[in-house]
Amino acid sequence: MKSRVPVSQFGELLGYAPGNVAVYSSDYDTADETIYPNRSAYRSYLDGIYMGYKWQCVEFARRWMYLNHGYIFDDVAMAYDIFELRSVRDINNQTRLPLQAFRNGAKHHPVVGSLLIWEEGGEFEETGHVAVVVEVHQDKIRLAEQNVAHQLWPQDQQWCRELKAKVTKEGDYWIECSYSDATILGWMTQTEYSEFSEPTPEINTDLFAIKAQYATDYGQATKSWLNIANDDEAAYVEMMQGHKLTSVNADQHHYFTISKTAQQTIEHATNELHGLFMHATDYVLQHPELLKKFNLPDAVLNKIRQSWDNRLNQLITSRFDFALTPAGLKVYEYNCDSASCYMESGKVQGKWAKHFGVKTGIDAGHDLFKDLVRAWRKSEVNGLVHILQDDEPEEHYHALFMKEAIEAAGFECKVIIGLTDLHWDAAGNIVDADGEKLSYVWKTWSWETALDQIRLECEADQSQSDDFEPHWQSGKTPRLVDVLLRKNVMVFEPLWTLIPSNKAILPVLWSLFPNHPFLLNTAFDLNDELLQTGYVVKPIVGRCGANIQLVDEQQHVIEKTTGHFASQEQIYQQLFALPKVADYFVQICSFTAAGKYAGAGVRVDKSMIINGHSDCMALRISDDSYF
């Protein structure tokens, strides 16, 4: 049972673990805004090394390791992911030391300094938990930890919690969890001794192959299968000029499958990479010399920082673009500010499979819609949501699909096409044609569209160059920038998504996490390593695959596209080509909801570069045995 001892204020010292490592209260409800004025203030660094988020369990475990032993474990998306790690990094010499995982009940007992790991669920819903073992006995084990209780420790006591333990006749060491709805996975120990340890998670990368499949043709393509009584499906059918998932008539029966192992790897990568991109975003905002490389108007930099400080956890959805091949899984970029492909993956591909009689595996996007609904319920919305879109068919069905999710979350929603139906009222509020105030907005436009307006206005009015503020005039129609940067309008996705969506983040990521298995070597300047592997030239701000060049190791341009972003600064990313499956190059797209994996789909093209005209096809997840 939880203690009734008074809770200490966030950041208050609770006690000291062995090695004189401080333990702090993480009661976030009591955090002092004068001490923790923004999100960056919650990031814990020691000797310039990122420890974690103040004052969570992972932060303490990493800090304890570093102060006592000089090594740390790698960044993880959730505490339970620590159980999958198999090495720690020695900070002094940058070498790797073995980290062994022992399942609860193992014959290799925990030792002082072992990390006790809980599975996600129950008391530790979504995240799991980690604590440091500070005493080991035959009948009990004592722990030091953060973010469970927030009470002061007894004086001179170096532990905060005690769990019952039992050793069997066979020598198995079992630890009882004090929470009936939580599960202890086991413990992690830095040791060469591997007997009785969990095997290193080795993935058979042959399971990363993508298979092309064909649904038996019974004439299904000649029949209607989307319900045009639903507004989003009617808009989709109108845009596609028929009931079809792909624009190529000959491909109506084609689809792709990946293995369960591949899907699990994509899910893990999505969750982990989201955390890495968030870390890199904070790093960029703390380093002005890097921020300059993102080519953002000075007039909005303060607003981006404010958005990051105030709205870090208010992301509804985003999309990663991956290459999946037997050579590995690699991320190309993070579309944190994009509405593309959600309806195709979250609704249409599932209905396609049902109509075409596909029984192989399960729909890779079957949870996306319900996860979007959950993300909206967790948002800080409290009233009518307006969706803003251009008068474009693709934007329209995406807007209507999101409207359905917003309404399923319990909010009223309106779709506004263009801005002509909006105007300023006498109090300086933006209102719609019915006089209802815009307070919460989800948009299909990218933030970069608004930045173009800001750049032009700042060039004409130098007084705006340091801190842009939209002007207003009662009765007049606002511009896009007036809506999106209005202080009393909460926009989804937040302004800070400009940073992780900008390809300038990719070299920063590589510098922070070199040789990370899901990242590609990327630099602001062409170097010898990239010349040897081949490279891709990308504009730091671009859309729909425009102005991209693929260059092989012989320095031959093997593919390129044109577009409107030729004047942008460029980055250089290691060449890691999409797999060609049957007649198409296939890109995996994974989607997040509230920062967590929510589903997947594919985009395909005869070209090696996925672009705005590339098609979606159905993606199914099959058992490994199928491969």
Would you give an account of this structure?
With about 625 residues, the chain is an alpha+beta fold. The protein has 13 helices and 34 strands. β20 (about 385-390), α8 (about 395-410) and β21 (about 415) form a beta-alpha-beta unit. It is globular.
Structural class, from secondary structure content? alpha+beta
Gap between N and C termini: 48 Å
Q: Rg to the nearest angstrom?
A: 26 Å
- The number of distinct helices, counting runs of at least 4 residues, comes to 13
Kindly report the average pLDDT value. Answer: 91
- Helix share of residues? 10-25%
Please state the overall shape, judged from the principal axes of the Cα atoms. globular
Share in β-strands: 25-35%
- What is the number of beta strands? 34
Low-confidence stretches: none
Largest sheet: 9 strands, mixed
Protein name: Bifunctional glutathionylspermidine amidase/synthase
Pfam family, one: CHAP
Organism: Pseudoalteromonas neustonica
Family: In the C-terminal section; belongs to the glutathionylspermidine synthase preATP-grasp family.
Descriptive terms for the model:
alpha+beta; seven-stranded antiparallel β-sheet; ATP-binding; Bifunctional glutathionylspermidine amidase/synthase
